[in-house]
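Researcher: Quick one. two chains, 611 residues in total.
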Amino acid sequence: MESSALLFALLLSFTVVAPAQPRAYTFPDVTVETQTGQSVHFYRDLVKGRMVVMNFVFTNCTTVCPTMGLTFARLQSLLGKREVALVSVSIDPSNDTPARLAAWSKKLGAKPGWTLVTGNKTDISTLLKSLGLFSANPTTHAPVVLIGDDAHGRWERIDGLAPAGNIIAAIDRISAKER
Amino acid sequence: MAHRVARRHRLHWRVELIRLFLALLFLASAVHAELTPQELRGRGIYRTGMSNSGTPVMAHLSENSNPVPASVLPCVSCHGRDGRGKDEGGVRPSNLQWSALTRPYAMETPGSRAHPPYTASTLMRAITMGIDSAKHPLRPPMPRYEMSRGDADDLVAYLRVAGSDRDPGVSDDALRIGVLLPPPGDERAVVQSTVSGYFADVNAKGGVFERRIEVDFTDTLSDRDFAVTAAYIIGREEQIGRKAAEMQLPVIAAFAAQGDDTNRYLFELLAGLEEQSIALINALPTEAKIRITHDASTAAIAQRLTERFGERVASSGAAVLFLGGTLPSPLPDTLLLPAPFTSDTLLSAHAQVLVALPLPPAVRPARAAALASSQLLVRALQRAGRDAGRESLIDALESFRSEETGITPPVTWTSTHHTGTSECVIVRWPRK
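Model:
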């Protein structure tokens, strides 16, 4: 009995500390609008060839999204010389206009280097479905952060509520594999 | 005989004791309904993350994170106005009602660890240091709050009564519901008689959870009402929406033209200008080009329609969707008119006019919309339960999915979409 409890505890601790398995994503190159109202291609202009950290939020969300946003703001101050693009994708494009995204990120202390995007509902759904993150009701979405190096096709997916330090660790882990 | 008298005497005393107990219970609930100044200060911190003490309240996501104003992450965002906690993104915030925090045995909630009952000091430690009553660190979504001792005392004082303080308009035996009337005229009288009749019927059947509905016919929003139904807000959507949000007063608009899905407190029953415009454009052949006229108040809708229909929107379209502004000259072959823009002049000036109506022409819109919005309010009150506050009423309204009213198209309200339906009827004018 004791040994099975120990085994369970070991398994549990393994699942907590083990890095997420690298996986490949194919990003559709849909047209999206940034928080400044600029029209860009999601893959070509925001992801291609870059180290990217990406989360999925909506401005009407009052529980997990402000926390994920603050984690991004904190991440910006921890990045140092690492060249990493931060991207937040609105999962409620019908309501999230560029102006709302800009106001939301400003309230959380966003600095340049963090791009928030919204767009046509069909295009955003296509994007979210391609990442396995589509949810018909935004309030039931899973808090997730994708961290990846597009140039080398290495991506990790971690808990969106993990502290900024865990994201830094994932960035460094992915970068180390490239060397 | 003496034995029987003694038994009757004991029974009498038991009845008296039960009466005394019930009276004390009533007193306790009455005390909770009226908050003390300290509890009111605590409620302010709980709901806004701000304090009037002069010392800012700050929030940290973790031990080393940069502090942010607690107004970004106030308690109410995750734990709700009633303190019970609301699910989002797979996260279940704890129930902060005092009865749940202080249960006299170790509590274990799904996905969390067991912890002993909280005391005022362990609760304060949880709020300020992120350590639970079992001395375990709280999970990451829960911030650590930095505040003065006085503010922490106020907040804990409020948490002792959170959820038991009633919202305005609620008493033990009555619920006051406002009705925002249309301007003087036929519709006003129709709305008054429809709503009066409906709630008289509800009251005759016992009211809602044994509370009588008191109807407050009014021309302005008032904080004396628990919620507002059958609201006529055409032409003053923005003003009413802003006031409802300021007062945190749920309003069901029976008649509105412009939807605002970002306002948590405003619910619209029928298709608005944008939904009607989409239906009108979809009624034309897919190759038809459309010109859109607008004024300042409809510019945002015109912009969204242009984005939605792309190349079909052109400056020289043969059909004109009229959203205000001036009609182009020469006059178009086809004129598309959402209901709020119908006028005798526009209806008679053109060979082909398509009109969008939120309800079929045979239905008296004032009666149908007033009745449907009142029915939905009562159903939401029933779903929310006897102890419901305004916030749980909103949660109940946001749970309607294709809710049938029998008189309007089915209504769906979600947390991100407050326009009940996009269905409307297209009528060709002159009618054949």
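Helices of chain A lie at 2-17, 42-47, 64-78, 98-107, 121-130, 164-178.
Researcher: Thanks, that's what I needed.
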